[in-house]
Amino acid sequence: MLPELGQFALILALLLAAVQCTLPLYGAWRGNTTLVSIARPAVAGQAVFVVLAFGILTWAFLTQDFSVAYVAQNSNLSLPWYYRFPAVWGAHEGSLLLWILILNVWTVAVAAFSRHLPDATMARVLGVLGFISCGFLLFTLLTSNPFLRHLPALPDGNDLNPILQDPGLIMHPPMLYTGYVGFSVAFAFAIAALLGGELDVAWVRWARPWTNVAWAFLTLGITLGSWWAYYVLGWGGWWFWDPVENASFMPWLVGTALIHSQAVTEKRGSFRAWTLLLSIFAFSLSLLGTFLVRSGVLTSVHAFASDPRRGIFILVFLGIVVGGSLLIYALRAPKVAGGKAFRLLSRETLLLVNNLMFVCAAAMVLLGTLYPIIGDMLGVGRISVGPPYFGFVFPLLMLPVVLLIPFGPFFRWAMADWGAAWRSLRPALILALAAAIAAALIFPHAPLRALAGVAATFWVGGGIVAYALRRWREAPAGRRYTPEMLGMILAHFGLAVFLAGVLITGATSVERDLGFAPNQTQQVGGLDFRFIGVSRVQGPNYLADQGTIEVRDGDRLVTTMHPQKRQYAGQQMQSKSDIDGGVFRDIYVALGDPLGDKAWGVRIYVKPFVRWIWAGGLFMLFGGLTAAADRRFHAKRAAMDETAPDAAPAQVPA
Amino acid sequence: MSRLLPFFGFVLLVALLVFGLRWNRTHDMNWVPSPLIDKPAPEFTLPLLYDSAKTVDRKDLLGKPWLLNVFGSWCVTCQDEHPVLMAYAKKFGVRLIGLNWKDDPDTAKRWLARFGNPYDTILVDTDGKAGIDFGVYGAPETFLVDAQGVVRYKHIGNLTPESIDRELKPAIARLRTE
Amino acid sequence: MKRLVLIIVVLLAGLNAAFAIDPLPFKDRAEEVRFQNLTRQLRCLVCQNQDLADSDADLAKDLRRQVFQMMQEGKTDDQIKQYLVSRYNDFVLYDPPLHAGTWLLWFGPFAFLALGAFVVLRILRQRARAPLPPTDSGEDW
Known about the structure:
The structure holds three protein chains of three kinds.
Chain A: H1 2-30, H2 33-36, H3 39-62, H4 69-74, H5 81-84, H6 92-112, H7 119-143, H8 167-196, H9 202-233, H10 243-268, H11 272-295, H12 308-332, E1 336-337, H13 347-378, H14 387-404, H15 407-410, H16 418-442, H17 448-474, H18 483-508, E2 510-516, E3 521-524, E4 527-538, E5 542-553, E6 556-561, E7 564-568, E8 573-576, E9 578-580, E10 585-596, E11 599-608, H19 611-628, E12 652-653
Antiparallel strand pairs in A: 1-12, 2-11, 3-4, 4-5, 5-6, 5-7, 7-8, 9-10, 10-11
Helix pairs in contact in A: 1-3, 1-7, 3-6, 6-7, 6-8, 7-8, 7-12, 8-9, 8-11, 9-10, 9-19, 10-11, 10-13, 11-12, 13-14, 16-17, 17-18, 18-19
Chain B: H1 5-26, E1 45-47, E2 55-57, E3 66-71, H2 76-88, E4 95-101, H3 105-115, E5 121-125, H4 129-134, E6 141-145, E7 151-156, H5 161-177
Parallel strand pairs in B: 3-4, 4-5
Antiparallel strand pairs in B: 1-2, 3-6, 6-7
Chain C: H1 2-12, H2 29-40, H3 58-72, H4 77-88, H5 103-129
């Protein structure tokens, strides 16, 4: 009974979404305030039914209703209760419902926290969001219904893939989707601005906090995904440039360009076309990611079960949304470049270069990800594009960014004082070179990449610390750091931390596959590993072989590790490695196969600084959230007073 | 009209994705084209399944075209293919040579006893070395080798009546006209 | 029977790297690192996008052994890659070789960058010609 109710709720949600995306937009166009005022109630109504549908699906999982086919495919009787909840989004249909739920949460938030916006703008923004919701609800009902029954009900289900039986599943998809879906808000604001023909840039100031929060959550989602892959998969890696990973990274790259471009447009009135386009691109890449992951055109370990029919639907939807928005852009984008003028040496220039580099990087990732299809089309046979390609080209493209980042805060708008900036940054440059030389002396065999990493970290980190210090010295107490500034400092610092992690771990981590006899000791990465033995262990829904390995640094016992190989109820096997994590080094041990005579194969990694990768991501997360909290964005005063001055736009054809 | 540029770029992208979807429907995503087509078959010396003392190598098979079918008793899809092979073995008009790949010879013999033996000869490749030389990455796979020992066609996955009629039979017929 | 389960498990779960653990008798650390670098550049053909180093597929294990054996025989990295490509096609390389079919891949991003840089330079030159507003202090934020 309930699953049918869930389906019905989705249908009602779809009807309300259809209302939400048609009447208010028409009303805004015609100046009909009655139709415009339908937007908020439609949003509320749609949200109620979506929450209801999601709640019903969750209930089906919690009560283990195997008459629902989706529940039967993704859980079974022995699944611990705390994994039944995230199992809801463990596969395609449920994750789509999660997408829709999160879209509704964003929409409700936008509707609730935007009382100070003009009604017509609000109607357009909510209307666009409603259109997207319509598309996804239709997609769910037509091709991916999670409430389909399997009658007669199965006595027991398959199991949730053991790799997903992990706290990572609870956090990673919701956080990632919050980011992905959040870019729809920036998109909606941009389309609303284009539709409304607004020449001023107030809409950017309204859109900024939403975009910063979305970017922050996408950063968190990607960071969590990388972290999860590291400790669950047993291969010690944290990024494989897999198509599904790239699908989340491309919106992030464009999103990074977007948040910076929005800052320029809001404060100086320039880059309006860039900001509009980037808003469209960021969300388009989110949608494209949805397509790539669910259509089966690309081979990936992460891909959901593919179905070309679903692929066709998403592609058509993508075509309408993105094609439509790019047409609207072509028709209504500002024809004349606006905003305050600026010289070659200025913060605007740096951010323009920033836009360019990040868009190039995103385009490169897109090219590499889609190249297998291009290869098929060109008839050159199947081509694989993997880490050797991305890992080579991406750092090259990001090198200018890393070199220029410290100059950003020091360059003023319109006309930078190059001398002053250079003087402020010289200490950071000297520090970076000194650190690299010191590292080369302390570790004579350190590869060039590690030294470059040390230099880059001190350059970026030193540069942002230099700015923070200068600000502390020169600004009056109490107004030293606005939230926006603080966010920038945190995020840029996070980048320095991230760079340290990536480059140092990439160059200095050690991996060895070793066969151990009982009580044998072998050395890896300067540490002694002594294999004690393997025993059998029983878990809630699995039986495992558990190894015991003692790790010593000289005479001191550092830790005892217990990697497992688990056999789950549904015949699936999983390797559960053990990790001893630390700020400066991770020790990672995975159990292999028995080699006969009680000997076992063991894989050992020693990875210095690997946690700095995710720490950097967390800094960026907090930076994004802090920046969004700036009260300037949330002023309740009438929006009319607050439009950024756009007087005397430079008469330059766009 | 530079403002239309993003739109046209997007149209190109959609065209590529449409191609990708249609390609996906007609091809197995795990399909890898064989670089051996129109090249000499690799050298091999393999024992027979039913007489492990005797071996067969590449030059023993020259002079007439032959089909190599890679199979194993452990391979589920091979069981699907087997009835098709049993039905068509005599109709091909060329020798059907089985390659028992990464298998245990005794288990293979039992499997053949149970499901039937369509092969003229069966070679044994327990460690998979010959398979690697042929570029085998999964069972079943079928190669067509001509009288001069050149690989002319490779079929990945199980043979079906449709694929035999559409591809394999014409390939064999082409050899006759040369 | 165990192999059957293995193949099915590999095909369905696809991510279990436990079986990829394969201790090999390397001569020294340098050889081990070379092996790791090489197998990270090669693709497991039967997996859903994994490299040879981390795949638990039977074929991946065979190919790892093959790579190891060829290293012992003194073959260079290029010779080993060529051996695999001549049997399994360019698909087996995660580092796409540079030939006419991959020019777009290798040069495309830089061509795009050059084009973008040209556009940006044009924008900057036009902007620089416009007069700065006199009261603009170019405030920090």
